Amino acid sequence: MDKTMSEELPEKPLLDHVMDFLEMVRRILIYIVAFLILLVFLPAPWMLPNSYDPLIFAFMNITNHYMLDFQHNIFSRPFAILFGVNGSRVVLISHGWFDSLTAAILLAVLLAVTVLSPVIAWEVYRFVEPGLYSHEKRIVKRYMVFALALFVSGVIYGYTVVMPIIFSVAVWLATLGGASLFFSIQEFYENILLGSLSTGVFFMFPLVILILNKMGIVSYETLNKNWRYIVFIGYVFLALVTPDPTPFSDLALGIPFVGLYFLSMWLVKRSEKKQKH
């Protein structure tokens, strides 16, 4: 029979499983904290020897320029021209002594979660591996690689495409109300962190659909027959959860949503063909 060696061993007590889980969490936290410390204290090599700029603050300056230079950002420039804010200059301000440091930590967390996601996934796999059959190990590995690819792609898309568009819309709305373009640096990076990570989670939609298919909840026939209604509901949902009230960020997320939906249909169809054979 196709069984792992762990099945021949006596089952662990519940307390041992809890301790293994806590040990996994401890290792993941150590990786993340170590990564954050490196970002905060290591100097940016391209700034040496002229000045000592911690790596994370150098990344902050790059992020500020990328997100707020509407004249040169290829994604936000068309919207900024449309709204007449392509020449606007946004100033990020600190309301407290440590707001810039807090903002730096928020960006460091985004980098840590993205860069270390393979390591985190491996630690999770090591935790669940002893309880898996050998064929289940192959399936779990394949699903985890697929989930990682979707999540990282979503984070990159959220950072590079969605957030610059959202900020261009936010600047336009601020100018409509006659406000000066002074924004909190902490809120700026909170939006980048939440927006990028939520887009990464959103991109895992095909994996959710595939799991629901494995559970017998959805089928290819259902997805194919009702795709217009599901896409419409998806757009309505995006309109409710995206931070700006205009349709532009919805469009930035809606286009990949349609692609992800049809990818889900293809994966479900492929899976059902394999099950029949």
Automatic annotation (TrEMBL):
A GO BP term here is: intracellular protein transmembrane transport
A Pfam entry, by short name: TatC
This protein's superkingdom?
Answer: Archaea
Question: How is this protein situated with respect to the membrane?
Answer: Multi-pass membrane protein
Q: Which UniProt keywords apply?
A: Cell membrane, Membrane, Protein transport, Translocation, Transmembrane, Transmembrane helix, Transport
Q: Name one GO cellular component term.
A: TAT protein transport complex
Statement: the UniProt record of this protein carries the keyword Transmembrane helix: yes
Per the record, the coiled-coil ranges are: none
The record's subcellular location field reads:
Cell membrane; Membrane
One example of the protein's molecular function in GO is:
proton motive force dependent protein transmembrane transporter activity
Give me the segments passing through the membrane. Answer: 28-46, 104-125, 145-172, 192-213, 225-242, 248-268
Subcellular location, principal: membrane
Entry annotated with the keyword Transport = yes
The record, for PANTHER family, names: SEC-INDEPENDENT PROTEIN TRANSLOCASE PROTEIN TATC, SEC-INDEPENDENT PROTEIN TRANSLOCASE PROTEIN TATC, CHLOROPLASTIC-RELATED
- Record's family? Belongs to the TatC family.
Q: How does it assemble?
A: Forms a complex with TatA.
Protein name, please?
Sec-independent protein translocase protein TatC
Q: Which organism is it from?
A: Thermofilum adornatum
Q: In the record, what lineage is assigned to the organism producing the protein?
A: Archaea, Thermoproteota, Thermoprotei, Thermofilales, Thermofilaceae
Instruction: State the gene name recorded for this protein.
Output: tatC
